[in-house]
Amino acid sequence: PPKSLANGREPTPSAFAESHRKGKGMAELNAGWKRSFDVYDRIDKLGIDLMSKGEVLPAPKGRRICNLTFTPSGLLFTSGTGAGRGAVTNDDGDVEAGYEAGREAGIRHLRALHWGLDPEGTLNDIWYFVKCIGMVNSAGGGAFSKSPRVVDGYTKLFHDVFGGPLSEFAEDGMDSSLSGWHARSAVAGFDLPGHVLIEPEMIVQVDPALALKIIAGRGPQI
């Protein structure tokens, strides 16, 4: 099966995603933020492996923090996830390595979102992305000035999958949806735990009805 279907479950839309497609779930949004495509089709085209639930979301025993927190409003908060090693300098090679680490961090969050919504929902139930905070490991004192480029690796992943101006599927800077577009802060000038290169976090808006169902059935944290 395609890599994103490694769990053996067809990526058929949930009831929530079906109402999305019929214009109910996202009826209050501007048409530019509604999606006419299945995000799993894009994931397959991009060659992203969503792995298995056990690999991505281990049991909570002994863990200091959770991966995701759902709220009744449908706002979903991810914990920061690190990728890459070392500090970034203004050297072009360093910056591009940081960009790739940012993309890897984005894939890790994509996996967590996919499995965190499962089995009640799917990634198609994400309405839009709210805000990213991207923290980059670098020298302080204003010596490093390219944190936005590093965090672009993370940002672009969500444009690619959910739609946005930087997407692989955009034409002349416009995609068929803007639901992967988001507000962002890209900050640098400090070390990060584990000396990781980048640690981003994301706030996501999902269908509130789905969030309430997950909270009632499994609790707000995963």
UniProtKB/TrEMBL annotation:
Region spans: Disordered: 1-23
CDD domains: YjgF_YER057c_UK114_like_1
Gene3D superfamilies: RutC-like
InterPro entries, per the entry: Endoribo_LPSP/chorism_mut-like, RutC-like_sf
Name recorded for this polypeptide: Uncharacterized protein
The organism's taxonomic lineage, starting at the top: unclassified sequences, metagenomes, ecological metagenomes
